[in-house]
């Protein structure tokens, strides 16, 4: 998957000055040479596995660009998503820009959502609360949060927020960061003019270990100061 993604970046994104910070969280051999591409590929091998947030914060500390993109290796590109995303980030009130995410079948994924609540999670668990939180058409939308498979930040914003909360090992890091962005007065955007294909693994649907991580992160978020603060602001109609 990673080799295909890097080939997509090389094919569609040459107008941009890119550096790729690749983290090998577990020991493995790369099926390509890092010199195969027109951009530098900087590889970091972890001595022990780290969580999603820790790995991206580590990459950010080693990066040098004006923008920082969080991108899963299971993403594929049919064209250049950065042109439209950078246009969205020209608005100083925007904290993060995300593309439209579609699955392998071309169907739009539910990557832009309202903040979760215990009641909403329970409603979904019993088969209710169906449907999407936002309808994505041609215009930019401003959801509560966007999925962490592809997020583009201005460097100073990611740094100001302190990056991802490393207390989360996996899941809800994107929800937490978007919550903190909103509390700092920044908008979260989904820019439909940019699109990516997501070859989702859905590990928490098949693995007890991943499901446990998912539930642990959910409980951590619901007990976190950012979630409690944004709930209070909305309850008192002072939502950011």
What Rg is obtained from the alpha carbons, in whole angstroms?
A: 18 Å
The tally of domains stands at: 1
Strand line-up across the major sheet: 4-9-5
Structural class: alpha/beta
Q: What are the salient characteristics of this protein?
A:
single chain, 240 residues, alpha/beta, Spore Coat Polysaccharide Biosynthesis Protein SpsA, Chain A, three-stranded mixed beta sheet, two-stranded parallel ribbon, 33% helix
Topology:
Layout: H1 2-12, E1 20-24, E2 41-45, H2 52-62, E3 67-71, E4 75-76, H3 82-88, E5 94-102, E6 112-113, H4 118-125, E7 145-146, E8 150-154, H5 155-160, H6 173-183, E9 187-198, H7 208-222, H8 225-235
Parallel strand pairs: 1-2, 5-9
Antiparallel strand pairs: 3-8, 4-9, 6-7
Helix pairs in contact: 6-8
Structural notes for this entry:
This protein has 8 helices and 9 strands. The protein is an alpha/beta fold. It has a 3-stranded mixed beta sheet. It has a two-stranded parallel sheet with strand order 1-2. The mean pLDDT is 93.
